[in-house]
Amino acid sequence: MATLDLIGSSAKFRTVLERVEMVAPVDSAVMIQGETGTGKEVIAQAIHQASPRRHSRFVAVNCAAIPGALMESELFGHERGAFTGAVAQTVGRFQAADGGTLFLDEIGDLPLELQPKLLRALQEKQCERLGSGGRTIQVDARVIAATNQDLWRMVQERKFRADLYFRLNVFPILLPPLRERKDDILPLADYFVEKFARQQGKSIDRIPDEAIELLACHDWPGNIRELQNVIERAVILTTGPILNLQTTEFMRPTSGPAAIKTLVDFERAHIMATLRETNWVIGGKRGAASQLGLPRTTLITMLQRHGISRLQPEQQEGRSDRSFATA
Asked: Which architecture characterizes domain 180-315 according to CATH?
């Protein structure tokens, strides 16, 4: 499928795709774990689309977005008169996903008192609407859950039921954060440029080298969602064929009194911070070039371009800018 979730060739992302292919044909429960913005729902949709259930509905529920008092009705539905304001019978999300897939996002936020009812629905493939007097409805829905929390720790802290955890965690899939799949940043950026340029009726041919270097250096705490927002903003600002990725708030340094004013300033500051972290070692597995995702020769060229030296300013007069360790 040519969706943003399946764009990427990094080793960690290929592992995710392999696990999607393994589990899609069967009906086992899946637990997708990953930071916010890593694309958990889209991976769930990819599993659904590659499964025998693809011709039925994919129903998503965000457990963190629905108040606890309304969650039972949202999942299982209610009869007319079940509570004040229940003026008609309502089908719950579980029944709406009959024959298809039910995606429970942020499952760690499901109220503790409701977890036994979800467990029963999963085990017995049936549910009952609020106010139904115990009448059950047979439901055949595959369940995919997702979380950005440490559910096992929540089990140990008695904030999440162990039996429900083991019922949902049949086939875990761990989505790596974007900072751990640097090779995928440029293909994803290209995808978003094309997408938003098409939506805005623009023709953008390429991303400039300086912007590519900045995208590669950023840690992306907001993951793919943050990258998408950054590119959309850049496309809005672009008036010609080259993407106009200006200095934006997301690329400001996390410490220090001075704000970054230009992309060049950001690049220099980021390189300097990495050099300090690596004790000014350039090459090798733990060197600055590796940490920045750059070839050693490229980093040395960038150091020379920025005039970066390990020497203090008062020591630099008459000395070479090559005064740093390269291995």
From this structure: Orthogonal Bundle (1.10)
